[in-house]
Structure formats: structure tokens, C-alpha cells
Design goal:
It is a single chain. By secondary structure, the chain is an alpha+beta fold. The protein has a single domain, classed as Nuclear Transport Factor 2, Chain: A. It is 30% helix and 39% strand. It is built from four helices and five strands. It has a five-stranded mixed sheet, covered by helices on one side. A hairpin with a 5-residue loop joins strand 4 and strand 5.
Length: 152
């Protein structure tokens, strides 16, 4: 995770939440992975299903994911940008996912785009209300020249 010399209080708090989440995934600690998620969060992850509309649904998704994770796992956070606000904040980053999969599947070694939205709860702590991880996909274009233009 990138460290900046002068972080605002909000940026430092969000960065600490991300660091704790990264460590929780490495430990495969379900409770710590889900810590700080609002009960009404919405999440979009790379593995199916398309959308999760509560922390309970997302927790079950993590139960399934952890069942496929073998050996050591590492999440890296690169190009982190935190946009702080008083009661709402968000961040985006490039996330590296590295680890062995159970049942002889190919090891995971990929990067995805990640965005997280946060809001302060009544106690003043930050909660994740929106989490989105995605990978780009190729979309056939009707005109090859326009496809090239769109990526510039």
C-alpha cells in the first residue's frame, strides 16, 4: 500500500481499514474480512454472482471464496487514491490478488480494479457501504478504428 507523507485524518483512517482488510485476507480471517462493512452494503466482486445487496450475502460469498483458497494469499494495493469527505469518502486502487487455489486449480495471479465507498456510522467509525472489484473485458466494436479511439 502506498504511504503518503501528509495524510488527512480521514485518509489515514481509510488507509488503516484497507491495511486491516488486506491482512485479514492473508490470514483468511472471515470476521476480520467483514469487519467495518455496513449491514446494507452493496458489493460487486469478480467471482459470481453479479451483485451482493447486504453484508450477510457478501459474507457467504467470502465463505465460498475461502473454501477455494489454499496456502498463502496476498493482496496488494497499488495506485491508491483516497477522496476524503466529512461523512462520506471513497477510494480506488489497482488490486493484485496472488495465491494458490484448492483442488489443483491454477494459482491466482491477477490484477483488478477496485473502488470502495465509505460512510461514517453513528459512532463516528467508517463503514464500507460499496465495494466493487472488476476486470476489463474485450467488447467487440462495430468499427475497429472507433474501438482504438475509445481506449485512448
Amino acid at each position: 500500500m502506498t504511504t503518503t507523507a501528509k495524510l488527512s485524518k480521514t485518509e489515514a483512517e481509510i488507509q488503516a481499514l484497507l491495511a486491516a482488510w488486506v491482512e485479514a485476507v492473508a490470514r483468511k480471517d472471515l470476521d476480520a474480512i467483514m469487519a467495518g462493512r455496513s449491514t446494507d452494503m452493496v458489493a460487486f466482486d469478480v467471482p459470481k454472482p453479479f451483485q451482493f445487496t447486504s453484508a450477510a450475502d457478501y459474507r457467504q460469498h467470502w465463505v465460498n471464496c475461502l473454501g477455494h483458497m489454499a496456502g498463502d494469499w496476498k493482496i496488494t494495493v497499488n495506485e491508491l487514491r483516497i477522496i476524503p469527505g466529512e461523512d462520506v469518502a471513497f477510494c480506488h486502487f489497482v488490486m493484485g490478488v496472488h495465491g494458490a487455489c484448492a483442488e489443483g486449480a491454477e494459482p491466482m495471479d491477477c490484477q483488478c480494479r477496485s473502488t470502495m465507498g465509505f460512510r461514517r456510522n453513528e459512532a463516528g467509525a467508517w463503514e464500507v457501504t460499496h465495494e466493487h472489484h472488476s476486470v476489463p473485458m474485450d467488447c467487440p466494436a462495430a468499427d475497429g478504428d472507433k474501438k482504438e479511439e475509445a481506449t485512448k
